[in-house]
Structures are given as C-alpha cells and as structure tokens.
C-alpha cells in the first residue's frame, strides 16, 4: 500500500480506479455456482462509487453475461478473468478466444459424460462459455471427489491441449492463451490515465492483480490490495494484502467507507 494513499483517494477520486473479484468477494461462496448472487447493497454501492471514482470494474472468472445480469451497465464488467468485456451491454471477446468455442463445447460434453460415469454424487460440470468448470464442493467425500476430478482434468487437458487453473473446490479448463485479472488492472489503469488503483479479491486467481498493483506502485502510483478473508482464503493472498476484510459483508463496509 502506498504511503499517503488516503489523500490521493479523497482529494482526487476521479484519478483512481477500483477493481473487484466476484465469487467470495461480492458474493458468498455457494455449493452451486449458478445460485451465487451479489450481496444485497453491493451493486448500488458500486454504482454510487462509479460516479465518484475514475473507474469501477468487476473482473471475474464468471461470464460477462452473468455479470451483466447482476450489475447492469453501471460499472465495467470483465468476464472469464478479462477475456470477455461488456461495453454498453454488448459482450465482446478476442478473435483468438472465439476460435476455441467449438473445441470447448466438445470438451464440455466429454467432461459431463465422464464426470457422470465416475459415480460420485455432488460433482458438477459448469459451462463457462470459453472455459469448462469442474466442481466438487457438494460432494460428501471431497477428498475422493477432488482426486477424481483432478484426474479428469488432467486427461482432458492432455487430450485437447488445454491449461488448468485451480479454484476453491474446483478446477477450470481453459484455452492455451495468456490472460489474467492482472492484465485488466494494468491495461485499464494505463488507458484511463489513473494515478491510483485498488483490487479486492479472495482467491488464487486474484494474485496476478496483486502483482499488477505492485508493479504500478513501483511506477509511482497509489495502490491498495484488499484481501477478503474466509476459511478457504490462500495464505499468500492474506499475507500480501494491505487491508483485510471478512467476507462480502466486510467488503460492503469497506466500500461504504471508501465512498465516504
């Protein structure tokens, strides 16, 4: 955290940007990903902040279509870790990513069939558009389910030249392309001409955004890394955070303090 950041954020709010994760940050972690919703009070608070700060963006592993339903057009929306963007309600992806859509649909069908054949209750295969999510949070024996789904992910990744990304009781299969939340933070901070940036997150996928803030601080910008604490939070994320809040409720209280 940059010393004296409070002055920058309060005196020149329009020169600062706020970036936030979704699951575990703006929404409670739930057994069924489709049941997740923003904590009541957070969407209007973000809308209020978007009128005060230079930029407010939700950057999530969720699809941009889901984020658009939950947050509308009041804030910037980046889905699939920054691979998708919603601008005025229109969702766009790069041509390179779009080229993988037929392959990912095929992998989704294979994952669904193979997961069912495992005979383990509580497994879930999630269609994420250009990615496939493998979940086992609802399994009674999580250790057994994790081992089985990890093996399935290894098989599918090897067969289709995909990459894996870990989550909380989950794995994701992605096209072999480089993109991250940190790329969004770096690119939008530069293009918006910001002098300060903050990121709020709770999981491993948020660490690249923390990395981006460290680089920006080295360039002289004011930065704040906010870690959202839960029983599943990675120790590294909490260790690196400048500010720690407890769950989405703590995030909402921090947002209200930021708005003043």
Structure keywords:
4-stranded antiparallel sheet; 260 residues; Alpha-Beta Plaits; 8-stranded mixed sheet; 12 strands; 2 domains
Helices, strands, pairings?
Layout: H1 5-11, E1 16-20, H2 42-50, E2 55-59, H3 64-71, E3 76-79, E4 84-87, E5 90-93, H4 95-98, H5 101-117, E6 124-127, E7 132-135, H6 142-160, E8 163-167, E9 170-174, H7 181-191, E10 196-201, H8 207-218, E11 222-229, H9 235-240, E12 243-246, H10 247-259
Parallel strand pairs: 1-2, 1-10, 2-3, 10-11, 11-12
Antiparallel strand pairs: 3-4, 4-5, 6-7, 7-9, 8-9
Helix pairs in contact: 2-10, 5-6, 7-8
Report on this model:
By secondary structure, this protein is an alpha/beta fold. The protein has two domains: 5-95 and 178-259, Rossmann fold (3-Layer(aba) Sandwich), CATH 3.40.50.1000; 101-174, 2-Layer Sandwich (Alpha-Beta Plaits), CATH 3.30.70.1020. Helix content is 41%, strand content 22%. It contains ten helices and twelve strands. It has helices spanning 5-11, 42-50, 64-71, 95-98, 101-117, 142-160, 181-191, 207-218, 235-240, 247-259; strands spanning 16-20, 55-59, 76-79, 84-87, 90-93, 124-127, 132-135, 163-167, 170-174, 196-201, 222-229, 243-246. The strands form two sheets. The protein has an eight-stranded mixed sheet, with helices on both faces. A four-stranded antiparallel sheet has the order 6-7-9-8, with helices on one face. α2 (42-50) runs parallel beside α10 (247-259), α5 (101-117) runs antiparallel to α6 and α7 (181-191) runs parallel beside α8 (207-218). The radius of gyration is 18 Å and the shape is globular. The mean pLDDT is 93.
């Amino acid at each position: 955290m940059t010393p004296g950041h409070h002055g920058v954020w309060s005196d020149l709010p329009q020169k600062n940007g706020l970036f936030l994760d979704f699951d575990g940050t703006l929404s409670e972690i739930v057994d069924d990903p489709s049941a997740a919703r923003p904590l009541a009070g957070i969407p209007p608070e973000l809308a209020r902040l978007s009128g005060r700060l230079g930029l407010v963006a939700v950057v999530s592993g969720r699809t941009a279509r889901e984020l658009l339903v939950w947050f509308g057009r009041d804030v910037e929306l980046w889905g699939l870790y920054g691979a998708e963007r919603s601008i005025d309600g229109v969702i766009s992806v790069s041509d390179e990513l779009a080229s993988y859509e037929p392959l990912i649909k095929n992998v989704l069908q294979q994952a669904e069939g193979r997961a069912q054949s495992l005979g383990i209750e509580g497994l879930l295969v999630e269609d994420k558009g250009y990615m496939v999510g493998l979940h086992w949070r609802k399994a009674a024996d999580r250790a057994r389910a994790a081992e089985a789904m990890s093996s399935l992910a290894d098989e599918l990744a090897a067969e289709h030249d995909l990459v894996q990304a870990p989550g909380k009781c989950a794995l994701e299969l992605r096209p072999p392309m480089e993109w991250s939340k940190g790329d969004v933070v770096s690119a939008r901070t530069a293009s918006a001409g910001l002098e300060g940036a903050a990121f709020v997150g709770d999981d491993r996928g948020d660490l690249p955004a923390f990395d981006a803030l460290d680089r920006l601080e080295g360039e002289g910008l004011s930065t704040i890394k906010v870690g959202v604490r839960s029983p599943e939070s990675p120790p590294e994320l909490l260790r690196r955070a400048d500010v720690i809040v407890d769950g989405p409720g703590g995030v909402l209280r921090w947002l209200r303090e930021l708005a003043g």
